[in-house]
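Structure in, sequence out. Go:
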C-alpha cells in the first residue's frame, strides 16, 4: 500500500516536471525553436486549434521561423494569432508561407524572461510540495484506520521527503538551464 502511494507521488511529481519542461520550451531564448509557437492557439473555424495542427514549422536559420500552412486559407488566421500573442513578433506573409524573424533580445527583455522562468519554476516546486502534502495526508489516514503502523508511516514520510527533495532538485536544474539559455547573448 505504501509503495503504491509513493509511486503515485512520484508519478504526480514527474508530471509537474514534465509540465514545467513543456512550459519552459515556449519561453523565447536567443535561438529560434518551433516549440515557441507550436501550441499557439489559432482561431480555426471558431475553434482554438494548436498551430502545429495547421502548419509545418521549420527553422531555416538561427533567428528565423518559417510556417507553411497545410491550407493556404488559414494564413490570415495564423497571422492574427501571432500578432495577438505575447511574443512581440511581426509575421511576414508572402501568400504561401509566414516568416518570423526573431530580433536579438534586449538586456531588459532577457531579465523579464528570466523572471518568468523563475516564477514558472516556483510554481512547479509548489506543485511538487502539494503532492507531498496530499500523500502525507493519505498516509496519516492509513495510520488512523490502522492499515499501517506508526513506524511504517515514519519510514514512508522519510522516503516521501527524499523523493520530494530529488524532484525539486530536478525542477531547479530545469529552471537554471533555461535561465542560462535566456541570459546567453
Amino acid at each position: 500500500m505504501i509503495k503504491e502511494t509513493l509511486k503515485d507521488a512520484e508519478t504526480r511529481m514527474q508530471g509537474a516536471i514534465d509540465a514545467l519542461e513543456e512550459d519552459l520550451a515556449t519561453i523565447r531564448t536567443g535561438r529560434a525553436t518551433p516549440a515557441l509557437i507550436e501550441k499557439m492557439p489559432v482561431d480555426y473555424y471558431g475553434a482554438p486549434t494548436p498551430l502545429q495542427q495547421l502548419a509545418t514549422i521549420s527553422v531555416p536559420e538561427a533567428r528565423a521561423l518559417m510556417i507553411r500552412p497545410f491550407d493556404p486559407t488559414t494564413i490570415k488566421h495564423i497571422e492574427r494569432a501571432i500578432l495577438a500573442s505575447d511574443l512581440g513578433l511581426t509575421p511576414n506573409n508572402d501568400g504561401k508561407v509566414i516568416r518570423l524573424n526573431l530580433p536579438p533580445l534586449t538586456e531588459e527583455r532577457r531579465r523579464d524572461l528570466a523572471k518568468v522562468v523563475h516564477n514558472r519554476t516556483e510554481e512547479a516546486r509548489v506543485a511538487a510540495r502539494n503532492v507531498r502534502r496530499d500523500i502525507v495526508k493519505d498516509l496519516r489516514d492509513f495510520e488512523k484506520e490502522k492499515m499501517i503502523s506508526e513506524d511504517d508511516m515514519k519510514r514512508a514520510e522519510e522516503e516521501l521527503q527524499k523523493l520530494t527533495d530529488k524532484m525539486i532538485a530536478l525542477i531547479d536544474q530545469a529552471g537554471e538551464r533555461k535561465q542560462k539559455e535566456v541570459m546567453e547573448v
